[in-house]
Amino acid sequence: MNNLLLRMACTYVLLITSSVFSRSWFAVANAAEEFVYVCRDAGAGGFQAFPDVCRLRDGRLVCVFYAGYAHVSMPDARWPKGGRICYATSDDEGRSWSKAEPLFDGPDDDRDPSIAQLNDGRLICNFFRLRAAPGKYRDRIGLGTWLTFSDDLGKTWSPPRPIHESYYCSSPVRELADGRLIVGLYRASATEAAGAAAFSDDGGATWSEPIDIPADLRLDAETDLIQLKDGSLWAALRCNDKTVPMHFATSSDRSATWSKARPLGFAGQAPYLLRVALDGPVLLGYRGFNEAGKSFTALRYSFDECATWSEPITVDATHPTAGAYPSMVNLKDGTVLIVYYEEGVGSAIRAKRFRPSREGIEWLAPYDGTEKQPKAQPAEAAKRTLSLTLIPPSPVTDMIDLDIRAAVWNHGDEDEHFEVAFYLDRESPDNLLHRETAAVAAGTAAGIFHRCPTKGMSGNHHILCIAKSGTRTFRIQQPLAVMHTGTRSTNRLGGAWVDLLHHNASTGQPFDAELAKMTDEQWRELVRAMHAVDQNIMVITFTVRNYTHVGKHNIESEGYHGQAYYPSKLFSGRAPIASKDPLKVIFSEADRLGMQVMPGVGCYAMFDFTPASLEWHKKAAKELWEMYGHHPSFYGWYVAAEIAGNLGADDRRRREIVDFFREFRPYVRALAPDKPVMLASNPFRIEQAGGYYEKLLPHLDILCPFGFHRMPPGDLTGEEAAALLQKLCDDSDCRLWMDMESFVHRDGKKQYPRPIEGLLDDLRRFTNFEKILHYQFPGMMSSPAMSRQPGGPASVKLYLDYQRWLNTINGDQPGLTRASSH
Predict the structure, then answer these.
(1) Are strands 295-302 and 282-289 parallel, antiparallel or unpaired?
(2) 20 to 30 A from 161, CA-CA: which of 271, 368, 604, 778?
(3) What is the maximum span of the chain, computed from C-alpha positions, in angstroms?
(4) So what's the pLDDT on residue 343?
(5) pLDDT value of position 26
(6) How far is CA 196 from the centre of its chain?
(7) Each residue of 323-344: pLDDT tens digit?
(8) What is the 3-state secondary structure of 422-451?
(9) What is the pLDDT of residues 788-798, one digit of tens each?
(10) How far apart (Å, rounded) are the C-alpha atoms in residues 493 and 636?
(11) Which residue segments constitute the domains of the chain, with CATH numbers given?
């Protein structure tokens, strides 16, 4: 460490005495001025700074911070071990805090701590260390970034070990959706400074060499990072010059490489990023500067994934120098707690509570347990401005054409024009794929579609969409891993159907009892189990249970009596399952993991595409979109009625299905123009359809047939049926996916896991399908990590057999990123 880093550390020491209050929280008439003291004296010299806060699994909050006698506290006669790392906890959502205790106190100045709890339950605290240079007044030796772990919620900690001796930290370790750990770093010397990141794929046991973030200027960085909803990483970096704006950079390959840092548009230091809940806006806390150059703790928010930011909000105006180095945590009632330090002699750690919304920041009194989280109205929740959908989603091979679809919504009262552009990997003229202007009437949405061949694109990419309207700019991106397999097929399962209960009780008898007992957390476990084997598309088979068939019901005269799997206002019946809203749980977990979900619209009645069924489906789709359309994982619509390969028993039924999709697809495109419509069929007797495929397929986006391995005697072979359907789809601009059967029937029609040999045989035989899903995951596959395993040991065996096989073929695509890991 050199004098430069010391000057950075000492720049903001201000000689102002802190006031002392008799309560742990300071109440004033204005809630905007109400704060809580986390710690005023940790017993290490009276100077507290650089806090970081996180939630523990037992519900408590823990705040770690630096404690010393000054901004830099080297060992001296009174304090022979110098600055230390301390912590305090709160069991009432930050209203009161425990007495501060030491977390680590080594022989050097241990400083800038951050803390996080990993998914496996361990706590990880990162910090850096300064050592006095022998015989040199005020000079310091930097010892780099260090880590310590706790397996018992902070009661004991492992001996600290270094990440890198020349890089420093100011923000916590972040755990990505796929389990990779990543930490923002920075380095500084007299001649240069840069932001960086390092990652670990073994739970923090070993770390990569720091990856520098390229920039055209000196950035003293204090890097923090966040994973966006599309899986990419976004980093904020400080510039030490308060007249120069902070910068940002992005990574689409999980920090293997970074874009060049670009100006963020406003000056600041010590950035800290937090997403509100699972799918809310992104908050940015930092040290800001007013027009006179005076510093203050600032807060901004972004509702478009860091593309644009609000104006700055002052966090605390009650202290002459409050404050700096903020950290934030979500509270149980949907509000947020921000912690920061005062600066100056006697600096204390403070905390404030607020609620963010599109209207701004509402400052609140300390949590008292009486407030409830406001519930968003369904219609409001579905409001989004820009969406991007790839068909098929990543991964794909280099032998297909990729559909790139965007949707823009105009929520205003006047017509609006959007200029929408698609780029490959980065925004530059050389990377432009398509650009067009969309006129969007008030209160409507418009779609922008482009088809792009993947030939010659093998490797990791992302598709970037930028929409501009007036002074507003919106950005979104999706990952795109392109494989070279020699065929259209990726040779792996890309997702699966998910029954919340089987629609036929006798068929689902081997696993339905376990499905009915699935709690919210157990559904999350199932989603994570699918993600762990790269099955990242989830098709919810039915959202309403009503097992009957066309021509065998009296719904039009007697009414519809189906049982909804979610809290529907349209359908009063409820399916007998433990989870009150498994759709919400599944969408939320899929959002977090970067997966895709297609809710099944239905069931009205199997094979029923009558006009009455069409009207039912339109109402059901509208409700599903209003309740769940705000989720980034909402991928499209699965019409759950299914159909035989001949498209119906007679031409009347065939005309009905054509008319159904001719009207249904425009209806749902008005809700969400980029979202595809999918139908599952079987490939039996497709030559008997009498030309109706040519009439139906132009009104479908995806046809996903099943049963190629069990063609009836005298029919086409499975390969012949696949080839014929591929031609029909290609001629009609419809995508052809495969619904592989991962079950076998035994004991009548009861479904049991199919041996792995059958699945692998299908993968080898049918190589023209650009995406292969299977029916189904629950009951056929279970991870050993799932606390409830529908289908029992046989389902665990199939899961592990497939996982072993997947690991072998993943080695055939070196360097290729998993679709939702980025």
Answers:
(1) antiparallel
(2) 271
(3) 96
(4) 87
(5) 35
(6) 22
(7) 789 999 999 888 999 999 998 8
(8) EEECCCCHHHEEEEEEEEECCCCEEEEEEE
(9) 999 999 999 99
(10) 19
(11) 3-268 (2.120.10.10), 378-483 (2.60.40.10), 495-810 (3.20.20.80)
